[in-house]
Amino acid sequence: MTGSEALRRSRMPVAVVLVWIAAGVSTLHPHLAPAIAGCTWAAAVLALLTAALRRGVSRSRRPARSYGRLWLSVLALGLAAGAVASTNVAVTAPTVHQVQERLPPGRQVVAEVLVTGKVERRGSSDWAFDAVALSLTGGDGESVATEAVATQVVIGDADRTALPALDVGARVALAAVAAAPRAGDRAALVLRVSRPPVMIRPPTGVLGVASELRTGLVAAVAGLPDPGRALIPGLAVGDTRLVTDDLEASMTASSLSHLTAVSGANCALVVGAAYLLAGAVGFGRGARTGAALVCLGGFVLLVTPEPSVVRAGLMAAVAMLAVVLGRSGIGLAVLSLAVVILLALDPWLSTSLGFALSVVATASLLVLAPPLAAGLARALPASLALLLSVPIAAQIACGPLLVLIEPTVPIYGVLANVLAAPAAPVATIVGLAACLTPMFPLVQSGLAAFAWVPAAWIAGVADTASLLPGAQSPWVDGLPGLVALAVAGGGVWIIIAVRPRRRGRVRVLRLVSGLALAVGIGVICGTTALRTVAGPLTLPTDWSVLACDIGQGDAVLIRSAGAVALVDTGPDPAVLRACLDRVGVERIDLLVLTHFDIDHTGGIDAVVGHVDTVIHGPLDGASAARVQDTLVAGGASVREVHQGTSGRLGTATWRTLWPRRDSPAFPAGNDASVVIDVAGARLPRMLLLGDLSAAPQRALIADEVLADRYDVVKVAHHGSADQHLPLYAQVGAAAALITVGLHNPHGHPREEVLDALTATGTVITRTDQDGLIALSLEGDRLRIFRDGGAADSDGSVGGAR
Predict the structure, then answer these.
(1) Which of 184, 186, 412, 446 has the greatest number of beta carbons closer than 10 A?
(2) Number of CB atoms found within 10 A of residue 632's CB
(3) Assigned CATH class of 535-797
(4) What is the rounded CA–CA span in Å between residue 509 and residue 503?
(5) How many CB atoms sit inside 10 A of residue 283's CB?
(6) Nearest 10 degrees: CA dihedral of 661, 665, 668, 672?
(7) How far is it, in rounded angstroms, from Cα 790 to Cα 794?
(8) Which residues are CB-contacts of 628 (< 8 A; sequence separation ≥ 6)?
(9) What percent of the chain has pLDDT over 70?
(10) Contact by Cβ (8 Å): 723, 753
(11) Would you tell me which CATH number, out of the four given (1.10.760.10, 2.40.128.110, 3.30.70.2740, 2.40.50.120), belongs to the domain 103-203?
């Protein structure tokens, strides 16, 4: 590639960067939008005037002058688009401010909304969809807004099967509580509802027909075996209502989740099939392109024209245009122009990770994949090189963004995509045909059955890849992880794609890339080893109590004579799994779920299938029941416990001190947390208080069920202010465990709690500062191991009992 060609390829992305920055800053800081709009408008006009003056002064055709004017034109385009984006934010800001001022967080509201996005899972039990609020009325009957307002509706603790009619185009009424949106969100308002909305009118017109077709496909696959059955609607039309949590986790772990959401790949398959079919009936090149684009538009309507699908369709159209033109450089320019227009019209896309993934995935096919295919072809057959180049390019481009969601790297992602690649087009096209033939039930059933074969293959690949050793390699979290993986991916691309030479900068670049990649792989392997095989070697071998560093949540291990209990699972399965791997725990003999808040049960998937017995407090809704059902399905024996229940763990005994049986004063939740007392030989006597607040703590003392003294107390509710401090004076523990996240927004642990513990002579350990904490008895002394953060990483406390 010549220098001039590289220059031509690199101009338009500059405009993308400019508009993305302007849109991102404006949406994250709306109060700055008017100033940003004014500055960018002025800069755009200045760039245009400069370009015009240069053209008027000199009519030279020399490349240097020509490139200068082109650079100014691109600069003007990016600035003008950024000005449009900032102006859009500035224009909508007053309405957003008015709505949020009249509906502060916590206020009751009655709304009528038009559904504009699919119902999707948010968190462990919530479902959410994007909508436009057509009317908003406060609890006092006052009208809040006189125009349509972008809204996100969150349905808490609901069963998805109860929400099938909430399709794009439906109008529903709901009673909700207002909540503040996150910075950068398109929604001006978040409405949290506890009951399913009431249908006013289902989708009509084209959207209604599309909804009926999708529902018909779901019905057509009803008699087929899982998990292939669940994938067919997702592969064909992006309908994931049948996809279970386990299947979704397997698809994500194997880097195949893009197949069940309508991405540019799905759209490209439809476009390609239409293009080939049009060619088979004798259409010319232009007619084939037109027919393919018409089919793409119909597919977008069928799937539902929500923003993410429209973006995917646009990316597919850009990729197809590049193929038709036969030049990836032109394709990159067209892609850049499309992104500039989208960001100008919808600046809130600038903070959407899904949009960023769509853009970089399409760009990777245009820019990274062809050189990769050529480089691989030097050592592999051309067809295999082409097959491998696409998933490798996508992994290099998308991986750095995906680690922002979860700091892991799917080791077998490329292999899984290669194995799934032949099946995905067949399942998509045949499933789409089944969706479009409801008037012929036998044909539809036959097509659905045929689509099941490749769908079942994809599900099997995902399940196998996710269960292989080291399927998810831990990676650095946050921005450092993004940069590190981008550098590693760049090194892989340079080594494979850049043609080796004996002399010059290319050879040096390849050498540096190889060294950097080797160091990176060494760091990854070392980190993985420390979190898995070698993890136990970094801890005291005789630990009996261990608090995992899982952020803002609880996950405490207790070990006696080889038997292990886990008290709560923290909020994140991946983080809990990393802790269990590091300490070498595979089997949980006793799982204690103190209550069902997300910071205590969100990591449950890490232990499903590895638990013998589960005890828990009162169920507090559908999400708690689902957790219970999941554990039962994994082979665990589950029972609810109350004050007075007891059992054994190895040579130790445990007993539940709380909650009381049938106590309306302390309903399910924090105040009905399971409190356990654990004692035994070579085990410090422990009191674990769950998330009890002050009132039940006083009741616990009044019930006279506490032992005379404890060696260790797990402080209630991460050290919140709502404590009955005399309880800790009565307990008189030698050491206190505070499981708490670093820089948590609640200010835990509170100073008054820390002062009260210090006043009783209790040694304080806290996971936000000390990391993982391990306790063990050495004679009559309690030894404390702190994994990191504390000045004194190892110490002991006298007087343990």
Answers:
(1) 412
(2) 13
(3) alpha beta
(4) 11
(5) 16
(6) -70
(7) 9
(8) 614, 616, 619, 638
(9) 82
(10) yes
(11) 2.40.50.120
Domains 103-203 and 535-797 alike in fold:
no
Closest CA to 189 of 151, 217, 242, 246: 151
pLDDT at 308: 66
pLDDT tens-digit profile of 522-531? 656 555 555 5
DSSP count for the chain of H helices, then E strands: 25, 25
Q: What is the mean pLDDT of the chain?
A: 80
Q: How far apart are CA 124 and CA 608, in angstroms?
A: 15
Residue 64 scores a pLDDT above 50: no
pLDDT in tens, 455-475: 999 988 888 887 776 666 767
Q: How far is CA 275 from the centre of its chain?
A: 35
- The token duo for 545 is 């109590």
Domain parsing of the chain, residue ranges: 3-94, 103-203, 208-255+426-468, 535-797
Q: Are 711 and 800 in contact (CB under 8 A)?
A: yes
Helices marked H in 304-440 — which ranges? 307-325, 328-345, 353-363, 369-376, 382-402, 413-420, 423-435
Q: Residue 672 — φ and ψ, nearest 5°?
A: -110, 25
DSSP designation for 171: E
Q: Judge residue 528's burial from the number of C-beta atoms within 10 Å of its C-beta, 0-12 exposed, 13-18 middle, 19 or more buried.
A: buried
In the numeric block, the tokens 């892989």 are attached to 492
Question: What is the distance between the alpha carbons of residues 801 and 787, in angstroms, rounded to a whole number?
Answer: 24
pLDDT given for residue 529 in this prediction: 55
> Could you tell me if 161 and 5 are in contact, meaning their C-beta atoms sit under 8 angstroms apart?
no
Q: Determine the residue type at 242.
A: L
Task: Report strand pairing: 149-155 vs 637-640.
Answer: unpaired
Which two tokens mark 242? 């049948």
Residue 669 · residue 157 · CB < 8 Å? no
Per the DSSP assignment, residues forming a β-bridge with 472 are 410
- The label of the residue with tokens 């037109």 reads 290
Question: Which runs of E-coded beta strand occur in 439-500?
Answer: 472-474
Residues in the chain: 801
